[in-house]
Amino acid sequence: MISSRARISCLSGILWASCAHAQLIPPGQPLPRTANPPVVFLNGYESDCGGSSFSSTFGIADQVMQASGRISVFFDNCTLPNKPSIEKLGTAFGAFLAGLKYTDGTAVDTVDLVAHSMGGLIARSYLSGKQDQEGSFSPPPATRVRKAIFMATPHFGSGEFNFGFSVDTQVDELTSGSHFLFGLATWNDGTDDLRGIDAIAMIGNGGTGLATMPGFDDGLVALTSASLGFYQPGRTRVLPYCHIDGGGLISFAGLCGPTAKGIANIRSAGDDTARIIVSFLNNTTEWQTLGQAAEQNSFLSTLGGLSVRTRTADDLAQVLNSATATAEGGATKKLNMSNNEIAYTDAFPAGKVMLVANSDSALTTTISLPAGTGLPVTLKPGPNISRVQSAAAALFPLSFAPRMIVSVYGASLARSTDQARSLPLPETLSDAQAMLNGSRLGLFYVSATQINAVLPDTASGFVKLTVQNSSGSASVNLLVEAAHASIFTLDSTGTGPAAAINVRNGLVVSNSNPLHANDFMELFLTGLGATTQATVTIGGVDCPTSYAGPAPNFVGLDQINCRVPSGLPANPAAPLLVSSAGRTSNTTTVAIE
Fold first, then answer.
1. Cα torsion at 158, 160, 162, 166 (round to 10°)?
2. Distances from the Cα of 196 to the Cα of 111, 199, 332, angstroms
3. pLDDT at 481
4. Which residues does the chain have with pLDDT short of 70?
5. 95, 383, 447, 516: which could form a disulfide with 419 (CB 3.0–4.6 Å)?
6. Domains of the chain
7. Which tens digit of pLDDT belongs to each residue from 450-463?
8. Which residues contact 49 (CB under 8 A, 6 or more apart)?
C-alpha cells in the first residue's frame, strides 16, 4: 500500500505534448491554408514541464491529421511559467488563437480543437472567459472554434487530486468539488453549453478500479466526470483506455496496469481514437460506432455525479458542513468534501434524489439526477432560479437577444398567492422583481415557479439576471447576442405547429387552414433583436420575407411576413425555422397543401 503523498506524486504525469514534426507548425509561424480548419491540440497538467512535448501526449496525431488534409498546431500550457491558474491559461489560449495567421497574412478565424485532460478545461475556460475572481466571466464575442474533441477531461474533477491538495493552483482547480469547476459548470444560465460549438468526448474505463471502482474510471477520472452528458446526449464514447500510458507512475500508484494504453497517445491511423477524431472532423458517422455510447454503459446509464453547495437567502456563499443524498430506493450517501463549501460524489443512482445540506441550518430539496453526467446543485432559502429561456421555446445554445420575452423558472420566485397576467403586470400585484444588471424589467406573468419578463432594447453581452422578493434574491448569468429567434407554437411545446396567420383569410394556419403556394404568412416569434434580416425556410426551401421586426402593439413580440414558395409537397407538418444573426431558431411545423 502506498502513501497518499506518494500517490499524488504518482499522479503528476497527467499530460504530455510535442516535439515538432513536419506536420506541426512551430509556434509563431504562419499556417498554410488548406481546405480544412487547422487542428489545435492542447495538453494538460504537467508535473515537470521539462518533459512537455506533443508526441508524448498525442503520439503521431499530427501525421494522422496530415493524411486527412489538415495541419496541426500545438498549444503547450508549459510555455506559461509557474503553473498559473487554468483561468490564466484560458486567457493565454485566447491570445494564442488570435495570433494565428495564414501565410497570406490573414487571420485564422476558425479552428478545431483536440484536448487531453486539463487541456479541455483550458478550452472551456477560454470559451466562457472565466477570470480568477470567482463569478467573473468575460466570454469572447466570437469563439473561433468549429469543433472540439475532449479526451479524458475531468469536467467535474478527480477525487485523486485530493491527495495533493494545494500542491499548486492547477491541482487545486482539478480537484473534485473545486470552486473553479463549480463555477465553470454553472457560468451560463446555470450550466455550460460550450457556446454551442460541435463537441464530443472520448473517455476511458481502463483503470484498475483503485481510484473509484472497476470499469468506472481511467485510473484518474471517473466516467461521470469525463462525460459530456451535461452538454448534449449521445456525444460521449467510452473506450478501454487509461488516462495515460501505463508502465510509469500511474502504474506504480496502482491506478492502471503496466501495459495500459493512454487514451490520447495515437500510435496509428487505425487506433479507435484516431478514427474517431478523423470521422468527427470530417462530419462522418463512423465515430458513433466506435467504443461504447454513454447511454449503453452499465455505469453511465444508471449513475450520475453531484456537486452541491449552499448559499444564503441573499445569494451569498456560505460554509457547508456536510451534505447527504438519498435515492428514491432508499440508498443514502454522505457526500465527499475537498473544501468547506462544496460537496460531491461521482457515483449515485440517477433519478429522484433528496438532498440535505447542513450549513447555518439544514436545507432540503428534491432533484432529478440525470444519468451519465455530473450535476451542479445550489441549495438556498428564498428564491431559486433553475433556468431562464425564451418564452417561446428552449434554444441551443443558451443565448438571448434584446427585446426577447423570457421565462424564468425556479422555486419561491414570488409568493405562492402571486399569479396574475397583464401587459405589463402592475408592480403592486407582486413583491417579486426581475432585474438585469440592476435595472428592473417589465413583468408579464408572476408565480412562485415562473416569471415572464422582457429584456430591454439595450441588453448586450454578458449580463446578470436577478430575481428579488421579500424572502431574498437569486441571480444567474445570461449571454445576450444580437439575435436568437424563437418561434411561438400553438401547443406551447416549442416544436409543434407554429403560431402563424394565413393572410389570405386572416385565420391561424392549421391542418384545416393550410398554406398554399404564394400565400403570405405572418409568423410570430421573439428574439429578433434589432435585426431586420431573417431567413425563413419551410421544408428546407426559402420563404422570401417582406418584413421582419417588432409586431405592432405587443412588447417583445416579433413578426415575420413571408411568401410561401411554390413546389412544396403537401405536408401537414412541414418543418419551419428561422435564422438570424448566425443563430437558428427552434424547429416548428406548418401545414402545407
1. -90
2. 15, 8, 36
3. 96
4. 1-22, 162-166, 416-430
5. 447
6. 4-12+36-46+54-296 (3.40.50.1820), 303-379 (2.60.40.10), 384-480 (2.60.40.10), 486-592 (2.60.40)
7. 999 999 999 999 99
8. 78
Cell of 298: 452499465
Residue 480 · residue 400 · CB < 8 Å: yes
Question: CA–CA separation, 494 vs 6, rounded Å?
Answer: 54
Residue 15: per-residue pLDDT: 30
Instruction: Answer yes or no: are the C-beta atoms of 432 and 414 closer than 8 Å.
Output: yes
DSSP 8-state symbol, 400: B
| H helix or E strand, kind and range, residue 323 | strand 322-327
Per-residue cell: 8:
499524488
306-361 confidence digits (pLDDT tens) = 999 999 999 999 999 999 999 998 999 999 999 999 999 999 999 999 999 999 88
Dmax (CA) for the chain in angstroms is: 81
Residue type, 369: L
What is the pLDDT, as a whole number, of residue 468?
Answer: 96
SS3 call for 93: helix
Of 373, 297, 291, 302, which is closest to residue 331 (Cα–Cα)?
302
Its pTM stands at: 0.93
> CA-to-CA distance for 469 and 206, rounded, in angstroms?
50
Residue 553, phi-psi category: left (phi > 0), alpha (psi -120 to 50), beta (remainder)? left
